[in-house]
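--- STAGE predict ---
source: upstream dedup step, 1 unique chain passed
mode: sequence only
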Amino acid sequence: MQSHAPTDPPTGPPDPSPAASLLATVRLLRVQLEAACDQAAGLAATGRERPQPALWDLARDNLDGLQDCLSRLWPQGAPADASGALIAQHPGAFGGADAEWDLADDRVVWSAEMFRIFGRDPGLGPLTLDQLPAHLHVEDRRRLSGLLTAALVDGKPIDAEFRISRPDGTQCSAHCAGEPVLEADGTVRSIWLAVRDVTDSPRARRLRQ
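--- STAGE serialize ---
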């Protein structure tokens, strides 16, 4: 009678739920939707496209509802390989600006566009999470600090618009979307952000008026 050696159980963290990958996709798609909306509003302002704000609002509501459902199916949040891979595959979808704060290895990585948006000399290196709020408009600092705390403590995503105060005295309006990257045990390993310069968007111009 042939004997069979026992099979070793698989090692390493389990594959993420399909909902996790979908969650990462929907969150990044939400950023792209805002970019498309700003572009459409610009075309409408020049008369080259008919304004359809109700349809854009409906698209936002549908994506937000889908994100809420997926968050309940996978409350741990999107894993690192899901979010990071999507950004790597579509680097131009967010204006090329992205950043990651790796808490485990105490490492910060910024893209070249990230330095441009913040008006920061690359020779000075990227900002730490603690330094980031101080480089925003004074009225936006507390809100960013709260969002970062919620991401680090509760694993919540980040999706908001801020005014960046540059060293030369100019300001830049930026839309930021990101989330914590989790370890297999659910602890936060890093924070990533995709940042898009929306200074010239119709919405940002209205806010400055």
